[in-house]
């Protein structure tokens, strides 16, 4: 199996982790794997299974290796691994865990405030006292005076454990909360932190997850970040701060050699600014040294990214004096290095400008122990305001889910990636720039699209085919859809700590603005599964830009749009002006199928947590019935629509079954499936059932009831059910999927006839959403007429409600904008997903005549 760099190739030895799929029966769990470079040399590899096929063979494996850019690609083979000269050593003691990468020695505390007590390299101290920090803002209104008080908090460790161990990679997981410095009995703001160590490297990767557990009416978070104290040696003019700019490094020394009389200081000043260490103890430099020592001592530096398009660098001499502005820039790459003669420490925050307001700072540079701070939310910005946008709901006018006000952020989270690199000698600016660029890129190995396709490990989708003229035109539309959202993210500035990764729901062509302020039409929040669209688009293309979009959406929607504890744990919030604002809290928003591709491709442990969180999410609907509006008081404990509710449960259970092989999750799937198999109308039953979470049983309540059948298949159900049908090799279930797809395409008279006059067209709106199911039926029945119906659902704009062809118009309003007037993310996401399925299953049946209609409509638009 070949793997290659997604795009960025590291220039030094770097720890990398990734995942690959295997065909059913191809790899047994007893077999070992090895990694070959392009010179056919073995490289030490750490491997582990992350999922299994029902026959017990391995479906996905995770891998770690320490690599550099000497090979463009590698090959994973079944065979004996090679031993490593370097290995991560981990020793656990009562109060500390000691990790030795061969380059770094790290002492991790199991109790207290400091997460990392000390970092050394071969006996030389690099840094100590790494901890989490936060600030809370308290507001009071007193006699027409507004009083604001800021309170500092710091981390308090609750549990530390070795989560993953191996000779190449080790993962240490730390959970805890923040405590108030002035009152250590007060705690809050839970956190989860993972430290990643790779053999023979000087870098520690840190994955930080912050949870909100406050009351948004009074708990305003002013700052959340991480702090470390680097050990620095040398005179003030040999103490440096380097800040990551738009493309390179902005350097500043604590004390300049530039003086009134020695403006270039015999070339020493140039060397100083380039980061070289300067020795002024020779007698010939006495006058320069005397003058330089009269210069101001700059102790504090900070870079504040206050928007997606602006940062400011500032410095000051001490706390009693003002900050002065050094420079302004656009998009910092979020690196901070602090060091002296002995080397130093570098911090890097991934997606630094994309998740503004962020900042990096150094204080006390000339002192005995400077402090470096990296802020995920900068205290120089306004405090987080997590209140809802209104005190009432707008169900009728603005498509909000319920009259109930459930707009709470209690239990949501946000995850960030930090890198920490240790230097035992001063790095060059070029070295820092290389590191900065690597940290901002997805550094991962991937397979070719053909391999993902052949593995059959991720459902039904097609590889691009532009050899056929009509297919080529359709592929162009798929590409245009991705390009539109990629450019729209930039044009509309869909960035920020709480927003990056999400997109908007519906466009308002009158205001030339997305409906950002109209209830259920604002943020998308996984509605109609754009996550799956983006991940399938990546699998079939291998494009880095799509991977970045899908990764950002996964990070956002799995954390911000979902609840990780509290009343709604395991559920997510439907689309709204505020991500967590809608009264609908449902399993379809948090389901595993939205996020599992990222987990399997990267082995990311945090997303692994999220997959585990939702596997028993069906228990949550006991206290929050998704159909409470329609069936508030009947004999059932709660209710579940066959889709999206039960389909989401199936996604959660199937993912749990793949990962753990726990038979109970197979039983849960079969419990509902067997009920459906025993009903006269099978999958067409319901669509709403009574539900018993203790037995996972669907309880039939009749057919054609509340729920609507387009809801059954618009939220990832086909993707989940296709995968289950193939994995279980269940022919009856496949036949039920065929039956559902064929039924959706029938005329109203035929629906009434086949269902004993129970089901009719009004229960089956938005037929384009079922195009993938119709294509599945057409392929199974080898029915050309049915295949043509499926293509008509996709290529007839009047049916699909899709803006085909996707063409942007340039307008001049408050600024020059490119827009597609009638676009919605719901329709675009589902059209792309269903088209990928149709191209795979019935691609040979798409006709020139059908696509010609699209082009004719294009001419009409132009006229």
From TrEMBL:
Domain named PcRGLX/YetA-like C-terminal alpha/alpha toroid: residues: 443-845
Top-level taxon: Bacteria
Location of the PcRGLX/YetA-like N-terminal RIFT barrel domain: 1-76
Pfam families, per database record: PcRGLX_1st (PF19501), PcRGLX_2nd (PF21345), PcRGLX_3rd (PF21346)
Occurrences of domain PcRGLX/YetA-like central beta-sandwich (ranges): 88-433
PANTHER family named in the record: CONCANAVALIN A-LIKE LECTIN/GLUCANASE, TAT PATHWAY SIGNAL SEQUENCE DOMAIN PROTEIN
The name this protein goes by in its record: Uncharacterized protein
Organism taxonomic ancestry: Bacteria, Bacillati, Bacillota, Bacilli, Bacillales
